[in-house]
Known about the structure:
Blueprint: H1 2-15, H2 21-50, E1 53-60, E2 63-70, H3 76-92, H4 100-106, E3 110-112, H5 115-130, H6 140-146, H7 159-166, E4 174-177, E5 180-183
Antiparallel strand pairs: 1-2, 3-5, 4-5
Amino acid sequence: VSQSRYHSMNQVRNAVPQPGKRQSTSITIHILVFYSLILTTACSQNQNIQHQLHDLTGSTMGTTYSVRYTGHKLPQLQAGIDSLLQRVNLSLSTYIASSQISKINQSPIGGQVDAHLRVNYQKSVEINQQSGGAFDPTVGPLTEVWGFGAARALKLPDSSTIDSIRAYVGMHNFRLTGDSLQKKHPYRDWE
């Protein structure tokens, strides 16, 4: 019984404000509030910068692009994006006669590849295998002869023309070795 009385007395003593203790608690609370305000203001100013929205737009590959980002303004970002897209275009565009892929398409044996073309070729092989051949980026000669390519066919191809073109179509007809993409069969103009 005396133990419970002792605990009750300590609870009462702790609940009753004691001189000097209240004042230090009040000062501590004011200091905490002050620092909280400083931190909140500093963080909100930083968040304003972090949440500031920037838009970049440009033209490439016969269309437009838009990049939206938050944070500090990066003036060099637009030039970097444009430069990268131009390099990709000069590597992979079938609409630019001087691009690497256009040169390889027109070459009888293949040609040199850069990093962009190498990565795209390797991914094409992977997707071709995963799709059981349904995805085949080598069908260019067939699309041309049927009139779906850049040149429009004036007449429908006959079955012997289609069969002869099929020998040139398929990922097995190409081999990537280092920086060189080689064709198994020399190029032939189907027009």
